[in-house]
Amino acid sequence: MRKLPEIQAVTFSHQVHGSGSSVAYLQYRRGTSVNHRGDGEKAFLQYRTLSSNIIELEHTVVPETFQGKGIGKLLAEAALEYAIDKKLTVKITCRFVQKYMEKNPKPEFKNVLAC
């Protein structure tokens, strides 16, 4: 198995889908979304815009080939940092991000959470 490239939370890009949800991709230094061996598997965080200043983090997907490498954590951090940067409030319904917040109670992240 090839080693994953070094991951850096360089960009937090998104694509809007017909369901009203968006998918966020963490990108690494080569400027492509996180994938492995060109096989099309991607780690992503799905979110939805609830209003002009509120997003809902719905679901995080990390393919088995990425698990245990900190990719989900990087996606969660990138989403929360994006919310801080854009002055958004975040509603978290994704179980992975909820657990991440319990284990990493950073004040700057807690400040963007919806009550």
Automatic annotation (TrEMBL):
* Transmembrane segments annotated in the record for this chain: none
| Listed CDD domains | NAT_SF
Q: Could you tell me which Pfam families the record lists for this protein?
A: Acetyltransf_CG
Name of this chain's protein: Protein NATD1
Q: Which Gene3D superfamilies match?
A: 3.40.630.30
What is the scientific name of the source organism? Caerostris darwini
Q: Which domain of life is it from?
A: Eukaryota
Name the family: Belongs to the NATD1 family.
**What PANTHER family has UniProt attached to this entry?**
PROTEIN NATD1 (PTHR31435)
Q: Where is the N-acetyltransferase domain?
A: 24-114
